[in-house]
Amino acid sequence: MFQGKFAIITPALISGAIAERVYFRGYILFIVLWFLFVYSPLCHWIWAPDGWLFNAGAGGVIDLAGGLVIHVSAGVSALVAALFLGPRQGYPKTAMHPNNLVMTMMGAGLLWVGWYGFNAGSTVQSGLETARALTMTQISAASGALTWLIIEAITFKKATSLGFVSGILAGLVVITPAAGVVQPIGALTLGAASSLLCYFALLMKIRLGYDDSLDCFGIHGVGSGLGVLLLSFFIRDSWMAKASAAAGHPWTAFDQLQVQLLGMGATIALAVAATLLICVVVEKTVGFRIDPQGELEGLDKSLHGESGYGMADR
Predict the structure, then answer these.
(1) d(CA 303, CA 301)
(2) Which DSSP category does 219 fall into?
(3) Is 183 in contact with 234 (CB distance < 8 Å)?
(4) Is the pLDDT of residue 25 over 80?
């Protein structure tokens, strides 16, 4: 059931990148195929005892709670899907601001608390390792939130709630693969570094003009990808000692970095190739990109016959 929840949440991340642009039937088919041909193989490669990435190098690819399996795979797939579908009508010339920042803040709070179970629960025990994972999650999220506020203070002389939420999420995704092996200084550094890189990734999105509605690639893909790689330099000595014993020689941060890069390359390659093929199959069968009129009406009305706030017809 715990792994099943991971499998459910991962394709839901992709929905944020393609919001307001796809048929409901197309999205349903997309997530079924994506789960079967992207998520499931990655899950087995990295987390199963007989997975080839699980057994790579002396200690295998380190990915406690889904930095690669969930966030990098979803982020890269989201980018591919967004490019395949094209932008929403009017984007980027028409500003498309968040609809309800109060709900955004509430969601961020739920995410932050829920992430404790997400990361700490992935230790599959209740003990010291669990407490460490939970603590590193808290430190990284706080570090990410504070760093984003500092960036905004320097850049705009203001701190925003949306920036605060973005920083929280940047800190959470970067620690997801690393929470089981890094020390507090590592979590602090990773959270800050993730906010910096994700902030610039969002600036690049604006310059490049692709329409990733909720920044799935810019935060989930970029932030967690950073954590997958940088964790190599903050691993606890006890873990490195075990890896050295397994390797038969001193295992270094650069040795582990090579393993992490292998996992990253495999994840990106599978996500890009499979997602592009799935998009084509969905478009050619049940249809993926919604028709222009339906998009203008809004998907609440054109696909589901309802209004999200009950005020549209007053």
Answers:
(1) 6
(2) I
(3) yes
(4) yes
Residue 261 φ/ψ, nearest 5 degrees? -65, -35
93 Cβ contact partners less than 8 Å away, ≥ 6 residues apart: none
**pTM higher than the cut 0.90:** yes
What's the rounded Cα separation, in Å, for the pair 97 and 5?
Answer: 30
Which residues lie below 8 Å from residue 72, measured CB to CB, with a gap of 6+? 220, 221, 224, 225, 228, 264, 267, 268, 271
Task: Classify domain 2-303 at the CATH class level.
Answer: mainly alpha
**In this structure, are residues 287 and 85 in contact, taking their beta carbons and an 8 Å threshold?**
no
Q: Is 65 helix (H, G, I), strand (E, B) or coil?
A: coil
At residue 99, the pLDDT reads 84
User: What is the DSSP track for 242-284?
Assistant: HHHHHHTS---HHHHHHHHHHHHHHHHHHHHHHHHHHHHHHHH
Residue type, 180: G
